[in-house]
Amino acid sequence: MKNTLLLQKAYLNGSFIDSKDTFTVINPSSQKAIGNLPDLTVKDCKKYIQTAHKAWQSWKDVPVGERAALLRKLYNLINDHKDELAEIMTLESGKPITESLTEVDYSNSFIDWFAEEVKRAYGETIPTLSGNNRMQTIKQGVGVVAAITPWNFPLAMITRKVGPALAAGCTVVLKPASQTPFSAIALAKLVDEAGFPKGVFNVITSKDSKGIGKELATNELVRKISFTGSTGVGSTLMEQAASTIKRISLELGGNAPFLVFDDADIDAAVSGAITGKFRNTGQTCVSINRFYVQEGVYEEFSKKLTKAVSELNVGDGLNKKVQVGPLINEDGLKKVEHHVKDAVDKGATIATGGKRIKGLFFEPTVLTNMAKDSLIAEEETFGPICALFKFKTEEEGIQAANNTPFGLAAYFFSQDVHQCFRVAEKLESGMVGVNTGLVSNASAPFGGVKQSGLGREGSKYGLDEYMEIKYICFGGN
Ligand code: ADP
């Protein structure tokens, strides 16, 4: 198939542009080059911001119905090009093609959701307490939005920001991850075809993440930064954005716990564990990182999980039978090796897997008898490793789960309804999966507490992130 969306260009003011400097994007599965993209500079970034600012002057006044109709056109185009988008995603991220196809639908659900939700961005009429004033509020788009996105969901992390931003009447400068920029350019092609006005959506491709990030975070024409990525970079951006008091949304790292209680349905827990752990080879911010299993079911759960994990099919994502792809790069793989070695050095047993296969592929792994002070207890591994810790009481399990500076997703399995409410309320995380390993969808608020971030994406709250409330007071007489 000739992929008409695979373009070696950046996108500015409604044009696909080149640059004399380029950088190469690698397929992590074959470690071969996919193509080259413009390596744009901080100077280019200033031009991008000015362009988005100019486009905002008219885009903000386009009636909501027209903005929603354009998003609807984009939604249809994404549906029409599902296979091409999924192929690009698998080529540049390595994720299995079945997951890429699911991600295209998931990405598009944000376009659908926000095209509708913006029609209900209601203001209020406020009762007058004394005198004759009349008071009301309206909601308006914040202005130019800078979106910085990671490589693990090359399309969904973009639409989750761009969908509400465009719906709200904001214009966007998007800086996608340099590992997976082709998905962003493919989206730009469809935005272009849908007929959005020039300059409303722009994609800057660059290897200079630091320089571009700093410009986006400090330029006073940018009114909002929306970032998904590591906590360290999020913290830097927050500091940089402080100088111009920008609005900021941060979706950062997690260290998700998964608790299995004594009366859990173990088969369901194993299936939830596979979904919550192995999606995108364990490289998602809501991936389970720490398994806490109550002592009464520890043996049964670890045995059944080990069997299921040893049956996973690892390989090149374009093969439809593959369930687990490669790690994104050598650094990612080294981190996984380091975490496994640390766990084993501290007494863990390898129940299955445990080593690199070849290239960037690592065996799906189960480690049992994890020591409490293992690195995996503290940091995200971002790889196909299930690390099993044992606990005795509910209180001990919750305490271990909460013993982290992060709080994005948490999961647990139990069939005791009272326990379900108790534990869900006590877990310190923005999202809790009860008897499920999958929580994300466009109509629900996605986001973290503690050092996992600020703000929510998706849901009715995801639109508010891109809108200001304006209060208007009409004097009476
Ligand atoms: P990950 O570990 O998922 O790659 P990063 O936080 O490093 O997480 O990257 C997420 C996004 O942030 C990518 O688009 C990356 O290019 C970008 N990025 C990396 N460093 C910086 C920085 N100092 N300022 C702004 N953006 C950055």
TrEMBL record:
Active-site feature positions: E251
GO terms, molecular function: succinate-semialdehyde dehydrogenase (NAD+) activity
Keywords: Oxidoreductase
GO biological process, alphabetically ordered: gamma-aminobutyric acid catabolic process
SUPFAM superfamilies: ALDH-like
Domain spans labelled Aldehyde dehydrogenase: 18-472
InterPro entries linked: Ald_DH/histidinol_DH, Ald_DH_C, Ald_DH_CS_GLU, Ald_DH_N, Aldehyde_DH_dom, Aldehyde_DH_Superfamily, Succ_semiAld_DH
PROSITE patterns: ALDEHYDE_DEHYDR_GLU (PS00687)
Family: Belongs to the aldehyde dehydrogenase family.
PANTHER family: SUCCINATE-SEMIALDEHYDE DEHYDROGENASE, MITOCHONDRIAL
Name this polypeptide is given: Succinate-semialdehyde dehydrogenase / glutarate-semialdehyde dehydrogenase
Source organism of this protein record: Sphingobacterium lactis
UniProt lineage: Bacteria, Pseudomonadati, Bacteroidota, Sphingobacteriia, Sphingobacteriales
